[in-house]
Amino acid sequence: MASHIVGYPRMGPKRELKFALESFWDGKSSAEDLKKVAADLRSSIWKQMADAGIKHIPSNTFSYYDQVLDTTAMLGAVPPRYNWNGGEIGFDIYFSMARGNASVPAMEMTKWFDTNYHFIVPELGPDVKFSYASHKAVDEYKEAKALGVDTVPVLIGPVSYLLLSKPAKGVEKTFPLLSLLGKILPIYKEVVSELKAAGASWIQFDEPTLVMDLDSHKLQTFTDAYAELESSLSGLNVLIETYFADVPSEAYKTLTALKGVSAYGFDLVRGANTLDLIKGGFPKGKYLFAGVVDGRNIWANDLAASFGTLDSLEGIVGKDKLVVSTSCSLLHTAVDLVNETKLDKEIKSWLAFAAQKVVEVNALAKALAGHKDEAFFSSNAAAQASRKSSPRVTNEAVQKAAAALKGSDHRRATNVSTRLDAQQKNLNLPILPTTTIGSFPQTIELRRVRREYKAKKISEDEYVMAIKEEISKVVKLQEDLDIDVLVHGEPERNDMVEYFGEQLSGFAFTVNGWVQSYGSRCVKPPIIYGDVSRPKPMTVFWSSTAQSMTARPMKGMLTGPVTILNWSFVRNDQPRYETCYQIALAIKDEVEDLEKAGINVIQIDEAALREGLPLRKSEQAYYLEWAVHSFRITNCGVKDTTQIHTHMCYSNFNDIIHSPRIPSTEEIADRINKMLAVLETNILWVNPDCGLKTRKYSEVKPALKNMVAAAKLLRTQLASAK
Where does the chain bind L-methionine (predicted)? Predict the structure, then answer.
């Protein structure tokens, strides 16, 4: 019985690749040092999978930055601004595309489907001269082979590559990217023939765009592409891998009729409806790679349930044609549970990170072949049972409160203009009031204080004193800049989700549960394992301390329920919206306590609202309905005089965000004027586009100074226009 892994995390169990990359970028280590770390990581992953008994082990899923950028390099699709003059693409050009350099900006980055991973978007147009410029896929196949591991090389499929691209600057927005298919297929053919020559017997094309809403023209492009590749692919087993959602029935028809293809991979965790399509008809003699182990979460697989699914599929496709797989690449989960020495033992028994999921895939394959590891299956069943019955998971009071929410839509009793009037009487702000988004720069000194407090090296009193001092500095700075609504700067917070999760029940935290977000940047999502509640106030002490330092309004700062949900590993034993409503009730308690403490402006950030948007149009309205409802629950109980703000970042990182550039007063004034063309003066605020945590004070002070000056300039202009 065969087993397969779609892809594996690259960062390493202790983020070895992150540190090697950053050291190389800082000029502290050589390209050779970086290549050595990478080679060691690759060989340990291949060896680990081979030792676990995996038959179809992937290669070329490692990346120094991003797999789409690797494909761009393979195709030689380097934008002209990087002055590449041909030849094999090396680190200099590769990292310039990823990160920019002293003279030119990076390529744009955007979300990879509905995950929290981000990829580098190819910039294409009619004039791109494609050429085979990175032999990485072939090199890594050979590298594994030299280590005695025969792998399945993985390439991003040609059609998905084009569908994920964008027209380059200066190219018509309407340029048909799929028209470039004929120009990139010759390079795919070269890669395939080199892989064949090197001894590959399988090849995997990732075509995840097949799960999207595609029109018939786009589906036809898949048919054309694989018909064109058919003769090059002869003699190879070709797997087309899809993931992240159901494959729609039209796409399923297209996919299963592709020429030259011998195997199809499906996500059966997020795509349970695909099971019905398979049962309704699967092409005879083809392989089914069944993705039953979740690549996007940290829960141990329910082996008995997966075994049942696989057993029924075996009846349809035949014993020798069924391959047990992961639902998608394991890139989106944490690396290895072995490194979690501080996690509670019971909770740990409910989890599986990437290394454990490899073992689960193999255990399922062996069980199907009649070699069931009874001990492994029974300890899995015991962990599943303990999770279902654990009193730590279920909190009756929370369940009741969440169930009671169903009867209302939690809209405020009065209309918005009435509330704005009441708030203005209370706050007495100028037109175009200024504020900031919440965080101020986190200095090395500040991080040291938090670290020492966590390690119990300084007392609670010393810690509180240090944080109060920082808040008073930030308050004084904002007063000196003449900002209208102040913030306390969040010096006590490590992360906008973790800070709240650590104070809510139902959350657990890892030490090494890092997941790649982009490049060398990793995030460590909290784990929501049980019903969520708020044992005591979380931010009231700091916000009221800050308010006592100033006569100006001090804004309370909270992270909203949808963002906490979307940036965590969420329990999979109840619908996501139920968990979201529970978090909303906890935040509601906090909002009302802030109000009682005299905080009149409260910001509830929903930075990740769009991150949870389903891939398919048909499911988006339902998501937005419960997500927005969750937000309304948090603040439906406040007085009319309390002003609620929110902040949303969008998931397309363009060059204006997180940039050290200091915009001039004129530039900011010009931007405000553009907004005034479409918005009423009484609702427009002037603020930065994001928190200032990652910036330096040398950037923040002049930028905010110019921002306030721009707001004052426009106030004067508006007053004289009247």
Answer: 437-439, 490, 605
